[in-house]
Amino acid sequence: HVRSRRQRQMCIRDSDFSGTIKVGEFSMQMWTCFDIDYIRSHFEEILDRKGELTIWQSSGGKDREKLKAHFYQIDKTEVTIELAPGETTQFSATDPLYIHSVISDTVFKRDHFKKNGRLISFKFPLEIRMKEKRKVLRYPYRYQDSKVVAFNTPHPTDPMQPNVRMSSILIDISIEGISF
Q: pTM to 2 decimals?
């Protein structure tokens, strides 16, 4: 996905605040995204691609029950997922439900949900977490001045026109580039 500056500003790398997240023996960087439009488009992409979801209820332990599912319906206020054929469970209404998609390595949780047969419904999530895909770590740009970056780029519609000068706010930096 190509994200706008507003969307990138709504996504925060968890390590910016709390360091690297450790899952089992592996360390990984995660992003937390609060941008509803981005979350909606991401879910719709998973729905269109018929992406498989993995759902579970416990946050740890080897004996947790993992089930396969897929998005069934997504609307403005509610999401419904359907368990794969043959999958059944007795989820506890008091424990949170965790949902993971392999597409973009996305995970989110819902504390409240309704189960009706193979369908599970819950309110549209306001936040998701995504695994960092970059090979080179990026660091937030924390200096108080010089946060605006200006650059020249080819004209967006007519390459025969002179270059267009653009500027944007610097978000983060790495040894291989900057993000704005």
A: 0.64
